[in-house]
Amino acid sequence: MKATKEKTKKLTGSKAMIQALEQEMNRDDSIFIMGEDVGKYGGIFGSTTGLFDKFGGERVMDTPISETGFIGAAVGAAAEGFRPIVELMFVDFHGVVMDQIYNHIAKIHYMSGGAVKLPIVLMTAVGGGYSDAAQHSQTLYASFGHLPGLKVVAPTFPHDIKGMLISAIRDDNPIIFMFHKTLQGLGWMDQIDASLGEVPENAYTVTLNKAKVVRKGKDITIVGTQMMTVEALKAAEELAKKGIEAEVIDLRSIKPIDKETILQSVSKTHHLLVVDEDYLSYGITAEISAIVASEGFDDLNAPIGRLAIPDVPIPYSRVMEKFVIPDSKSIIDSVLKLITV
Amino acid sequence: MKATKEKTKKLTGSKAMIQALEQEMNRDDSIFIMGEDVGKYGGIFGSTTGLFDKFGGERVMDTPISETGFIGAAVGAAAEGFRPIVELMFVDFHGVVMDQIYNHIAKIHYMSGGAVKLPIVLMTAVGGGYSDAAQHSQTLYASFGHLPGLKVVAPTFPHDIKGMLISAIRDDNPIIFMFHKTLQGLGWMDQIDASLGEVPENAYTVTLNKAKVVRKGKDITIVGTQMMTVEALKAAEELAKKGIEAEVIDLRSIKPIDKETILQSVSKTHHLLVVDEDYLSYGITAEISAIVASEGFDDLNAPIGRLAIPDVPIPYSRVMEKFVIPDSKSIIDSVLKLITV
Amino acid sequence: MENISKIDLLWIYRKMKTSRYFEEKMEKVYLEGKQPVFNIGAGPVPGEMHLSNGQEPAAASMIVHLTKNDTVTATHRPHHQAIAKGVDLKKMIAEIYGKKTGLGKGKGGHMHLFDPNVKFSCGGIVGAGIPHAVGAALANKKRGKNWVAVAFIGEGATNTGAFHESLNLAALWNLPFIVVIEDNKWGISVAKKNATSVTSNAVRAKAYGIKGYSVKDNDPIEMYKVSKEAVERARKGEGPSIIEIETYRYLGHFQGDPELYRNKEEVPKLKEKDPIERLRKEMLKENEATAEDFKKMDAEIYQEVDKAYEFAVNSEYPQPKDALEDVFCESLTNAIKT
Amino acid sequence: MENISKIDLLWIYRKMKTSRYFEEKMEKVYLEGKQPVFNIGAGPVPGEMHLSNGQEPAAASMIVHLTKNDTVTATHRPHHQAIAKGVDLKKMIAEIYGKKTGLGKGKGGHMHLFDPNVKFSCGGIVGAGIPHAVGAALANKKRGKNWVAVAFIGEGATNTGAFHESLNLAALWNLPFIVVIEDNKWGISVAKKNATSVTSNAVRAKAYGIKGYSVKDNDPIEMYKVSKEAVERARKGEGPSIIEIETYRYLGHFQGDPELYRNKEEVPKLKEKDPIERLRKEMLKENEATAEDFKKMDAEIYQEVDKAYEFAVNSEYPQPKDALEDVFCESLTNAIKT
Ligand SMILES: Cc1ncc(C[n+]2csc(CCOP(=O)(O)OP(=O)(O)O)c2C)c(N)n1
Ligand SMILES: Cc1ncc(C[n+]2csc(CCOP(=O)(O)OP(=O)(O)O)c2C)c(N)n1
Ligand SMILES: [Mg+2]
Ligand SMILES: [Mg+2]
């Protein structure tokens, strides 16, 4: 079902996640949550707050710091008919468990010729901007997007966060669900408007593989993801004052990428800027540029713009971190370069 | 020093690697090799054959199946002034040790503000085409190329294999050295001409970050890596008969990518096809297409062609594996589509 | 052989013999198309081939205690456990031949055999199957079933992080989980003593506060007893166990392995103590079965296995485009980018 | 305190006290710019902050036995070991302030302190530093030096695969390696009993055939003795050790941790047994030092730490573009793609 316009409430990203998890766990008791500090703590980034008290330790399980152990265990439990939702706190930590993710979770359905289904949702927090340095500030969108057998989503706004998390939970395929720390609306981080939004109280689904035009415009298409969508919208307001109408697309799905929405927009604006909080090389700016350069080439009137973290680790010191993570200002600069090309 | 035209010998890729390792180990005794089956066995894909007998178990160390342990140990040993060369048999297995690679080996020099140097070479075998299925046939070029702090090389021909391995060993930065199984010239795999080549007997270096034009042409630029370069050259011969002169570029360096060589070629041919034995999304075809679409846009007369493993795991059965891995035939088809666009 | 039922003994013999005959036949067909010059990619059965000749007791004498509700995960060397667990032999061989009728429609291959009907799976990454069995054990506990999950691994896998994380989890959560370590002395070319800091992995049970057992010299009877205790304890909720059995690797790590790293006498010596022959002799001595019985049994086994190979050989190959199916539950065909 | 030299006792006290004063000051400055509303990204010291108040004995009573040739790797909670190991205090604080004069020119931050001059490093990934120390120990053995490498970790890290793989390697290769496990009962909000299947990690030494020690109740003297033996054995080539010490975490996992998961009495109870106060009283009782001596020593410590903070506060910030330097030995500046 699509989002119904009925009863809604203003929720933060975090509250939207919790509501999705609670409603789905009430609906289906084959669902359980595993992860570090998902219990009493409620998730370091507020993804499971209150669920331990509601559902108990059997369905909201704290784990040791054994990612290969418990994420590997999700495979066995899913193959037996459960629907594990596993959180690994920071996306940065997945290096210790990538084998379970790309060689097993992503491939078992295929290698078994479809005989084994693994309805697993892996939830993880992404993003920087608060000086957490090189091992706690990455998004690694493309590190997951590159690998076949995974659906990778990264919603931005509370409405999509709830709807796409419910879709992910109901999907019989393994899903990587990335939520952005700054968009959780946590009391102890930067407060931004985008982290609050109207969310229908009832359960609803939002399609996993569709991008969304979040601002209409005729002069240039800007594709962003999570905080880069938020920055792009900010930039678009400024650009409007300069008479440039930017169309902003919220990617939402890292894998697969919704080509149609992007190509259609470019066929109208003839200009494209892709903005990414991940690393530049082999990242979102690469994949989307390639899609358009191969399938929308004739619609392009100018070179494609790419804005992402230059290929450097994310530095700790605020001045340097701000320099490497794109923001509305660097987006505006890039747009002006492209339009006056 | 560049390759000298003096005394050369016809060697296989495997022999070229062994010669590079032996000559460098003789030159510098801070170099040692660690890995599974690198000792008496000589490396599953013939990368260290004979070195155990020459240098002994102190400098050619077999390890347990503890990748995080021994690759992590390379960090500590390198920080203490050694120059570890570590082999992990198949690139596919790196999922168990990606954390050590992208959060530590790749970032410690940066996080220490340049105070710590990690001269580590990680050698690994890549590629499919012999029915080794989904967990033993990948290249994962882009999985490494995406991460900052690593130089990632994938030479094709014996001359480059020796020269680039020596450059990697002498470089003070961590290097991922990928060698292609089929290009090792092993007696128990497919025999192909490309796996044999003239190699100078003395030690020499080949620059790590340069692509190479391996065939001149005016009509289209085809960029390949390792076996895709070999297939592209095969395709070029066929295309020539049809009157199409393809320029073939052997990428050699996955990270950084040698933009200049590619852009220069496209400025001449005005057409581009990128061929990759890695997965399509967020792969080499994405990054190179993006570079040209943003920095060589005006030189392009047609959409960019992308040919790679569609986003599926690599199937075991020969007929299906052949279908997903690009070859000269699919390259020719793609070129004909692009040129007659 | 006191207090082992004749039925169990015959079952163990049958499974070991079936596996042995299966592997010996595989050894032959694997070479088809690979002679005179061996080429790993050639022939009707291409790719790596890891055979289990000599390691049968570990599988048969454990799995005799299991039902189809119990889970088994295995490794890159999975045939003996698959056969003991009752994996569909026809579909298994068809998979190894890369046929459409295979367990994975030809997509998996010999290292990737999945048969959900008997809860069997395996994989090519060392150690990776251990947490999968822990997860199955967790599921069993959540369901309140007394079903158990057994992870079979080689001694080389005990030095992976996955082993440690899995054992700690299983012990912490007191799960019906057992790991069977087939100590065949070798991890490819690396001897156990060059890879493992302790001589017996049974002592590693102390690191998790669980029970550890060792079975000497590839003994099917001893393995039967030890496994019986471990399985019963697991079913009663008494927690996980580690069982390490000394076993024999008759062949190379994979077919084509030059085996320059081990001396030529090792295997002939082991074969003198062949566990299948040992069991047969024992049973004859104890009058558990007659020479006739064995003759009849063996004939049935050969016929069953031969028929299964025939099925595989006569099956169709998949279509090239089938490669695009089964990535997700719904077809990817229309989503492919090229 | 029999057979502990006064010099060592004073050294241990000084290092513990320095660390404690350092952390208490950090606790304050961390809140600058974060009030009235706490915002993790605000103020002169942004990002996560993991303090070690209460855990000083583990660091000081081990590192007193080390020289600058010995290697120490630490974790996300690295200040007490860094101070004991002799990391440049000025540069360390400057790094935490994100200044150009910091150990990492402001690129690393509090979880990423590298001082090659005293062979100290740390990192933010649990367990990851253990193999780094194993590698340093390997280097020492290769060089024929009697230098040792010590990995400090928390009790939560003992359940990572890295722990197991590293310990097995160190034992297998008989390396001069020691792991010190600071058991502060908590891995963020997860209690040891909910994460670790055994009550003492010292028993895990059996899994590697090495020596395991436990130190009760955060005792600096006991930690001194145990560490002395382990370090001497390592230097003599007698192999690795595991040392687990029961210690106290006075503060939250990180600053800002609501700590709803532990009861309010826990910390006050622990503070009554404060290890620094305990040592001071002991030394006074045993006349190892007078109240005067302590007063003088404390004054020196406060001054040294205050000066180092001043240095950091008065240092310059890096330039934004400096972010592009130090990715590789040569500058990346010209290679940047945008
Ligand atoms: C993580 C990982 N590392 C390395 C390998 C390569 N490899 C395949 S089998 C094997 C040896 C395994 O030895 P053991 O566990 O004793 O099993 P055995 O082959 O003896 O049955 C190795 C190193 C792998 N498949 N996965
Ligand atoms: C591989 C990995 N998983 C999870 C985390 C998140 N994390 C950081 S510290 C911590 C708890 C560590 O507990 P312990 O080892 O006892 O050290 P302590 O914080 O008590 O000093 C966790 C789970 C991480 N940094 N790395
Ligand atoms: Mg073995
Ligand atoms: Mg702790």
Structural topology:
The complex is a heterotetramer, with 2 copies of chain A (341 residues) and 2 copies of chain C (338 residues).
Chain A: E1 8-12, H1 13-27, E2 31-35, H2 51-55, E3 60-62, H3 67-79, E4 83-90, H4 98-105, H5 108-111, E5 121-126, H6 141-145, E6 151-153, H7 158-170, E7 175-180, E8 196-200, E9 212-215, E10 220-224, H8 227-241, E11 246-250, E12 253-255, H9 259-269, E13 272-279, H10 284-295, E14 305-309, H11 318-324, H12 328-339
Parallel strand pairs in A: 2-3, 2-4, 4-5, 5-7, 6-7, 10-11, 10-13, 13-14
Antiparallel strand pairs in A: 1-8, 6-12, 9-11
Chain C: H1 6-31, H2 56-63, E1 71-73, H3 79-85, H4 89-96, E2 120-121, H5 129-143, E3 149-154, H6 161-172, E4 177-183, E5 186-187, E6 190-191, E7 211-215, H7 220-235, E8 241-246, H8 266-271, H9 275-285, H10 291-314
Parallel strand pairs in C: 1-2, 1-3, 3-4, 4-8, 7-8
Antiparallel strand pairs in C: 5-6
Helix pairs in contact in C: 1-2, 1-3, 1-9, 1-10, 2-3, 2-7, 4-10, 5-6
Structure description:
- The complex is a heterotetramer, with two copies of chain A (341 residues) and two copies of chain C (338 residues).
- In chain A, helix 8 (227-241) links the parallel strand 10 and strand 11.
- With 341 residues, chain A is an alpha/beta fold.
- Helices cover 35% and strands 21% of the residues of chain A.
- Chain A contains twelve helices and 14 strands.
- Chain A has helices at 13-27, 51-55, 67-79, 98-105, 108-111, 141-145, 158-170, 227-241, 259-269, 284-295, 318-324, 328-339; strands spanning 8-12, 31-35, 60-62, 83-90, 121-126, 151-153, 175-180, 196-200, 212-215, 220-224, 246-250, 253-255, 272-279, 305-309.
- Chain A is globular and about 60 Å long.
- With 338 residues, chain C is α/β, with parallel strands linked by helices.
- Helix content of chain C is 39%, strand content 10%.
- Chain C has helices at 6-31, 56-63, 79-85, 89-96, 129-143, 161-172, 220-235, 266-271, 275-285, 291-314, and strands spanning 71-73, 120-121, 149-154, 177-183, 186-187, 190-191, 211-215, 241-246.
- In chain C, strands 2-1-3-4-8-7 form a six-stranded parallel beta sheet, sandwiched between helices.
- At the A-B interface, helix 4, helix 6, helix 10 and strand 14 of A face helix 4, helix 6, helix 10 and strand 14 of B.
- The complex binds thiamine diphosphate (2 copies) and magnesium ion (2 copies).
